[in-house]
Amino acid sequence: MRTLITGGTLVGPLGATPTDVLVDGETVAALLAPPVPIDPSARGAAGAATAAASGTGRPVVDADRVIDATGKYVIPGGVDVHTHMELPFGGTAASDTFATGSAAAAWGGTTTIVDFAVQRTGEVVEEGLTAWHAKAAGQCAIDYGFHMIMGGVDEAALKAMDSLVAHEGVTSFKLFMAYPGVFFSDDGQILRAMQRAAESGATIMMHAENGLAIDVLVAQALARGDTDPIHHGLTRPPALEGEATHRASVLAQVAGNPPLYFVHLSASEALGVISAARTAGRNVFAETCPQYLYLSLEEHLGAPGFEGARYVASPPLRTNTAPHADDLWRGLRTDDLAVVSTDHCPFCLKEQKELGRGDFSKIPNGIGTVEHRIDLIYQGVVTGKISLQRWVETCATTPARMFGLYPRKGVVAPGSDADIVVYDPNATTTISAATHHMNLDHSAWEGFEIAGKVDTVLSRGSVVVSDGQFHGRAGHGRYVPRGLSQYLR
Amino acid sequence: MRTLITGGTLVGPLGATPTDVLVDGETVAALLAPPVPIDPSARGAAGAATAAASGTGRPVVDADRVIDATGKYVIPGGVDVHTHMELPFGGTAASDTFATGSAAAAWGGTTTIVDFAVQRTGEVVEEGLTAWHAKAAGQCAIDYGFHMIMGGVDEAALKAMDSLVAHEGVTSFKLFMAYPGVFFSDDGQILRAMQRAAESGATIMMHAENGLAIDVLVAQALARGDTDPIHHGLTRPPALEGEATHRASVLAQVAGNPPLYFVHLSASEALGVISAARTAGRNVFAETCPQYLYLSLEEHLGAPGFEGARYVASPPLRTNTAPHADDLWRGLRTDDLAVVSTDHCPFCLKEQKELGRGDFSKIPNGIGTVEHRIDLIYQGVVTGKISLQRWVETCATTPARMFGLYPRKGVVAPGSDADIVVYDPNATTTISAATHHMNLDHSAWEGFEIAGKVDTVLSRGSVVVSDGQFHGRAGHGRYVPRGLSQYLR
Amino acid sequence: MRTLITGGTLVGPLGATPTDVLVDGETVAALLAPPVPIDPSARGAAGAATAAASGTGRPVVDADRVIDATGKYVIPGGVDVHTHMELPFGGTAASDTFATGSAAAAWGGTTTIVDFAVQRTGEVVEEGLTAWHAKAAGQCAIDYGFHMIMGGVDEAALKAMDSLVAHEGVTSFKLFMAYPGVFFSDDGQILRAMQRAAESGATIMMHAENGLAIDVLVAQALARGDTDPIHHGLTRPPALEGEATHRASVLAQVAGNPPLYFVHLSASEALGVISAARTAGRNVFAETCPQYLYLSLEEHLGAPGFEGARYVASPPLRTNTAPHADDLWRGLRTDDLAVVSTDHCPFCLKEQKELGRGDFSKIPNGIGTVEHRIDLIYQGVVTGKISLQRWVETCATTPARMFGLYPRKGVVAPGSDADIVVYDPNATTTISAATHHMNLDHSAWEGFEIAGKVDTVLSRGSVVVSDGQFHGRAGHGRYVPRGLSQYLR
Amino acid sequence: MRTLITGGTLVGPLGATPTDVLVDGETVAALLAPPVPIDPSARGAAGAATAAASGTGRPVVDADRVIDATGKYVIPGGVDVHTHMELPFGGTAASDTFATGSAAAAWGGTTTIVDFAVQRTGEVVEEGLTAWHAKAAGQCAIDYGFHMIMGGVDEAALKAMDSLVAHEGVTSFKLFMAYPGVFFSDDGQILRAMQRAAESGATIMMHAENGLAIDVLVAQALARGDTDPIHHGLTRPPALEGEATHRASVLAQVAGNPPLYFVHLSASEALGVISAARTAGRNVFAETCPQYLYLSLEEHLGAPGFEGARYVASPPLRTNTAPHADDLWRGLRTDDLAVVSTDHCPFCLKEQKELGRGDFSKIPNGIGTVEHRIDLIYQGVVTGKISLQRWVETCATTPARMFGLYPRKGVVAPGSDADIVVYDPNATTTISAATHHMNLDHSAWEGFEIAGKVDTVLSRGSVVVSDGQFHGRAGHGRYVPRGLSQYLR
Ligand SMILES: [Zn+2]
Ligand SMILES: [Zn+2]
Ligand SMILES: [Zn+2]
Ligand SMILES: [Zn+2]
Ligand SMILES: [Zn+2]
Ligand SMILES: [Zn+2]
Ligand SMILES: [Zn+2]
Ligand SMILES: [Zn+2]
């Protein structure tokens, strides 16, 4: 099966140029300078085309299918490196399965997710990974990989880290400076995991909030009777994200400088730590998420009554009385923020978010965005906050390079997997729980009007979305073992 | 004429992957996933090949010439955006003509230079550009463009800036904070030029040294009898480069933030200014040059007797008692230094450098490096200071994007000019005045042993260097009008 | 003549303690732990007292006069190191003579001024000093000293600097980075003056605004027809004060680190430069003035019509949309701002400020505050912005130490000049042109209500203000030759 | 009993001036401008003098004793706010009792110590204080106060803090970020203690080293067989002091900004945190100790064999390959380091330091310096590192103000305790275990030659040291309850 995507503008981190793309089977066979001569006589059903010899010296192509991308962008499929399908949390679980969540991702132009397998404190690392493989196997519409959440670092866990890197294609490990008793690692444990990563080349991913201090503030708030959702935000101040970010950065230095990647960075204070480390030339990286770019403590988390519950995530939405969001957009411009991921972790209002009515600390933490990331960040291009190139780089190319998926993922290049999105800048999208494809009874993005639209999505050469239809299937997506980071300096 | 470069590893800023490159005429027709099927029966003389239908679904190519790049890197031809061919200076002129200098560049894997046309204080801008066109026309072995040196900003010069941007393909203007009476602009003039650039989108290039302070120090040194070459360095301390860099950065803010590019950055103090501005998200950029990465005040400029004269350039070589060079390498890693150029400005010892015997201030300023940049920076890859990708990015891709040459130059992509270098990492090169191709009776790099070698060079599809032979010719190179910077945030 | 000030709280930079002060003639004879036994039988007319032997082991005092300071602060007389009496400016002259201005100072609790003798570009330094001595001699109500304004640094001026330090008690020299053609020194001249100061120990005072850039902005504003007073502020942006401050700081490093004192610091950008230099341990200092703490670009300089003219000074009042004033108060707390002076330079509206109607650049620059500094800064104590100790330190002790007047001035200690103010924190003061003592037909401080009041003022042991009466006289004040700075690290 | 100290130069933080001091009983009665007239006819035995009426208007004094300080400095007695007399540590106890240690302090010109009462994890705060009062009562040669070490913050401890502030004159509480299981508080506990201090006005003192990370490094070193004393230093890297300092600074912000005082600051990284907080105007303070100014990891802790054990303290001596010591001296100049204390905690080699032979982690932590602080810091004056004024300020005035002892201690002023040292800058002192007065069988300062000598020491008006003799007695020293910090901004 050969597919020619023709007439479009290929966009990558370096620029945008008119380029035709020939897909052969599951991978990209060639990039071609247009116009690519095609023999119209050979065109058959379903837009197939056979290119005859052109006589111009150009390579000739015969394609079974031609996708006309005229007036549209051709970009690598999105890579969302932070999702939590079916994550158990506080007695319930994230509402998207790998099946529903991966299909929703595909709808939104994301063709690879890297989800988090979980070891909780006291559990065995390898068993956690096995359990997550079981959840995902045969369910996914798109390709997927796993990071490993380390809920407690001991001798066995350290050995497991090496084993996962060597044998399982899991090369990144998330540690928590928050959630004592659940995921929390103390500074000694963090140091040891970082030392191990420095040796193996693995990446340490960090949830950087000072959970011990936060838990004091939470208990004090509840004791005062401050139980509304906004207190979730007020008890997790930006300074405590900044502090933890600084601490992790120093511990990494002491540990021998493993690659260090901060997840869901939300606060200016934390960004300042990243900027300083990066100016110093260190392998310190960070992602942010759409919620921190668009939503705020006052407007969303502080919505009347229990409305704010739908926006409860950790770190919390930040105040709009300080320039957190502006700083994050600037970080995306400067590459101090290298990646946009979603931290997709949806919980329905009904029976899930409601668990925290009267006690914000019991509201399941998470927002569902896996379907909308590409659209939401494209708005930054429309409003001039970032360039077209950075859109592609932060949503696809860098996440792939950061987590050892390149050049298989994150780029449209000869030999790469044919994970390709045709994006129409002239169409529009309206986001609503009524129309989205995530398994979620509300949307944090309800009513957002997007300039731009995911037109066609290919996953490993197969069209999974086109003409507003889903052509994918559970089980098309395969597990992708990953190598070490390719984004190091 | 079709050429297939096969078997090599294509290296760009994002990564290195096995990719075959098909050149058709002067441009790249396609990038192809190897192996590319070629019909051996069709192979004729001179390595030409006709590819038959492969039956594998791959595009089939027929090529007139096949270049075997097995075991080698295929990279975009180098772009050196800072050269001074035939530059008049202190009663003499740089010893390389456009003919000799551009041929030497080609030998070294550089396929585009951007030279500086000159308006001196009191002269007319357009006449300067005309004069430089006259010097270069029909002489160059490779393509070339021009920046404009503004030796004094007045109403006419400001109008000329707009005209050069609109009509002449000259979109970058160098100002001097040093050399009072020759090139110097005062802060008011700088502000006005920056305002104009902010409107037109042109880039301001800055020679950032506080020349008024330096001239006091020079006069004091000469008055004390300190006349040896090392005093060239001692009278131009790093702090005065840092100061001027800071000042220009602030003036650009006041002027409305035109793109601001610092040439030949040499000092940690200046780098700190760049880092701060870039962390703040501003369009502030800088280049450094090989001499600041490898040579030092003490070892080279302070060589016994008059030996140091061969290393006299401005800014001067910096002390090795402070980490200037380490900081510059770090800057290249972090992209605080975006470009490596040469500031190629060769003067022979005989009759040129000798003019300054007994008075360092009369030594013509300049070092000749246009032939060695690609090799010298590749050593940073060999020693682990930068990645393979950054080598290509700093020497080819970013300079092309920075100065409006992309995607015609700086990248190997469908539709781009076929300026391509095959680089052999397993061969070696020894630098010597006895063997180099620059018109220069000595070498600042004498005896440098390079791990790596320029193997084959194509300029717009023509092989100009291969098998240790020069196949180019004066006049092959064409003037390339440039657009606005494509490296903005 | 012996005076005992009894019952008060002596306030100095280290703290506030109940202490009695015995003045003998022109100086302080003793500080005494209260209660000081005084023989009531010996008390004569005018509050005089003779203390008999107390039998308690305490020293016994007999005083001709007793000042009851119960419930009041006893502080060293204020030292205002930045005044411009009778300064010629743009065809007119500051409206306060040394007679009127020094009397107004005394009214306000200031007992020493250091005024600026002026050498304009092209004039002879020593002649300027002579002229200023002639203006002041026999006129002043309080003691006075001189700084020297250097309006152009050449060989003769450099020699004059040394001579003034050695023979004239003038140990500080003000240079201008603004006002080209009038006072402006270029960077080479500044460097030379700094080098000379580094040798002699003199202090360089700097007016730090980039005048070359400002003059471009001024010309452009006038050309656009933007002639109102607010454009005085808009054409002198904070960034250009920050730039000049940074430049001067670097030049001082290159010159060998003379003491460097920035006058009238007004902008956060400039304060940041000071903070960095001071954290690095350098002898870099700054003053601010009340106008930058209380008045703003929008509210005052931007007052309707020509009203803003009364607030035209350089640097200009700063915007209240950025935290300049808050930052300055913080600087006073941290000692990054060591001194509060007035930059007293009054011009009447009538016939003076009016010269700039229709052209803001012709409005004489200056605000009159010499009478109100102690009161205005005391409000910072009342509102909790600074401590009681810092009020005394910034207004009296540090300026005396900074400019070589200590311990003669700036402290109440045995042997010091008896320049003493009794300040009543429970009384109040209303500022108005109708009641002030400056020769000025308006007040920038009209209607300011002060919590606190200057109660009694002694100058060298003589009561010059008490009971709301002026008891001083022209000619009481003497010229005070100054030594080198005593505030160095 | 009246004592007149005459002929000397009184030195305080603001300057040095010839001043006579009259002591009456336990306090200073007056400061007098010399010459003070004394009636020689009245002079009796033991240098007593009765001053007759002078006829000059000067106060007349009759003194029982006259101390001739001609050619000498008169300074406030030293205040050492960090000592550990009889501190239990690892099965042994610091070798100085309150009797021996306080006498040694007096010998060295220190007239007040503030020692640390201890609550260990699991103990009751008030019982700790009672125990320490019992150790000190009736033993001390000089006055003393207590800080409280909090070895674990819980509800009872928080209440105890308030009680100690309100009733016990204990206004400062030391927390540990190191020593898990002994003194360690986690971040939640620290936050709560800081919140309480923010309410009461108490000062939080912090031992800032990341003990959880350190304990991992220590265990790894011992497991590797790295048991020599130098590994005490190598397992406590400067970065981990910097990290903890930063963390505590952020926690204090979150807690409402109580006064925060870092003890025994030793590393440039930590100093940087202090500088930043102080530039921001926060009430963040730090002390350093002589060992960090003079001794190094390589030269002392790394001495051959077990020699390094005598220098084992925490934080450890720092490397001399980085400018830690230079930075600390600079910090003393700039007041980023406000205080010099000793962290006096002596352990003999015999039977104490020897406990750690073969396992550096078992070496009792501490160095004995209480006798030498004034001398050692005076060397900084001699070598030009700090001014004469800063010597007095950092060793006496600021510690007294910082910890609520002012103006009773730390200053020579009317009404203050007559704790006075006459210091002879022209005599010399040689430090040796053979001659020192601490109960310690070695000296970290063996062989140090001091330019300067403690000549005479008065404690509350009594001469305790003079003519090389000790005239003090155990029990003269009294407990001094302290108020809140008087050094706030
Ligand atoms: Zn997380
Ligand atoms: Zn997450
Ligand atoms: Zn240049
Ligand atoms: Zn150049
Ligand atoms: Zn001025
Ligand atoms: Zn002035
Ligand atoms: Zn400690
Ligand atoms: Zn201690």
From TrEMBL, chains A, B, C, D:
Annotated transmembrane regions: none
Q: What cofactor does this protein call for?
A: Zn(2+)
Modified positions (N6-carboxylysine) are: K174
SUPFAM superfamilies linked: Composite domain of metallo-dependent hydrolases (SSF51338), Metallo-dependent hydrolases (SSF51556)
The record, for CDD domains, names: D-HYD
Spell out the InterPro entries in the cross-references: Amidohydro-rel, Hydantoinase/dihydroPyrase, Metal-dep_hydrolase_composite, Metal_Hydrolase, Metallo-dep_Hydrolases_sf
**In what residue span(s) does the Amidohydrolase-related domain sit?**
73-464
Keyword match Hydrolase: yes
Give the similarity note. Belongs to the metallo-dependent hydrolases superfamily. Hydantoinase/dihydropyrimidinase family.
NCBIfam families membership? D-hydantoinase
Instruction: Quote the protein name from its UniProt record.
Output: D-hydantoinase (Dihydropyrimidinase) (DHPase)
Organism of this sequence: Frankia alni (strain DSM 45986 / CECT 9034 / ACN14a)
Q: Gene behind this chain?
A: pydB
